Amino acid sequence: MKKALYLIGSPNQTTQMHRVAQLLEDEYEPYFSQLYYDGWMRGFYEWLLRNNILDKTIVQGLIKEKADRYVAQHQLRRDFENRELGHQYDLVVCCSDIVVPWPLLKHTKSVFVQEGMTDPLHLWARLVKRFTRFPILAIGTSLNGMNNCCDVYCVASPGYAEHFEMIGVDKEKIIVTGIPNFDDVEKLRNNNFPHRGYVLVATTDMRETFRPDNRKKFIRHATRIAAGRPMIFKFHPNEEMDRATAEVKKYAPPGTLIYTSGNTEEMIANSAELITQYSTVAYVGLALGIPVHSYFDVADLKRKLPIQNGGTSAQRIADICRQFGRFQGSGPAFLRQYQPAAPVASERPLAGKSRATEAASI
């Protein structure tokens, strides 16, 4: 049987890679590794890790630990950095092209799967893009696509196809598939979250990824939008929870609920209005027709909104992986002749997915 290496990172990236892997198990034996550099970038990457510069990103620290736990809990085959087992792989499926094993991709077919929303192309990211060859220095996902190193790029929507082309991906490598976890938001309306009719505030780990965040100003802005309605704050899992909790207790109205974990998408489905900073979950609110406030341009978010295809994105991506794996030629040549297989109505759910929540009332 052929072998595929799935590069994982955040919880969202990891579950999406797992879904695709499940659908290819009949043809590709799946192995998993956190994102890593190899080849000419290895020394620079190890220097960043040694100095904890990437501690709040998906390749180091708490988020990497979560991915490790997921791999262990689901008993997935692990080949960390392709050094534990050292297999020769027939396919690499990437959740990022910022941190990539260059030598492996040079000789192995590769498919990129968009995770979700990309970070804003702020001034620092623009400078990194213009003057360096190292998109990792942007510390985030704003330059995902700049390396243009994968054979095929599976993206969320026509709007994102335009975005990735602008960042640097060859247009002929891009195909719109939708993305798992954000392609069937209607199903979120049927949930067991106990609250309804509140204003949900979903924060972002901006401070943890070296970006400015006036949290006091943001909380007061959210309070004005809520205008006396009940509020729930849901923190990003990468945040320093004690600090974030203390700020909400200080600046938000009494009775505001705080969730440090839980299913954010189901919380959005039960809300009357959604307030975000920089967060992919804004797409959930927009797809459900809920009023959304974001640091992003909401009109631009609507243009990039992931297509809704009834939860079949993973099947579409798996079909591309399967057919491309059998194809003799480049990614653009493959896409020019690609005929998608008809997706089935539903996918096999991931086993053991936790929906645990923690709440505190102030």
Average pLDDT reading? 89
Name the CATH class of the largest domain: Alpha Beta
The low-confidence parts are 351-362
The CATH superfamily of the largest domain appears as: Glycogen Phosphorylase B
Evaluate the radius of gyration.
Answer: 20 Å
Description:
The protein is globular. It contains 13 helices and twelve strands. It has 362 residues and is α/β, with parallel strands linked by helices. Strand 5, helix 6 and strand 6 (174-176) form a beta-alpha-beta unit. The strands form two sheets. The chain has a six-stranded parallel beta sheet, with helices on both faces. It has a six-stranded mixed beta sheet with strand order 11-10-7-8-9-12. It folds into two domains: 2-181 and 307-337, Rossmann fold (3-Layer(aba) Sandwich), CATH 3.40.50.2000; 185-305, Rossmann fold, CATH 3.40.50.2000.
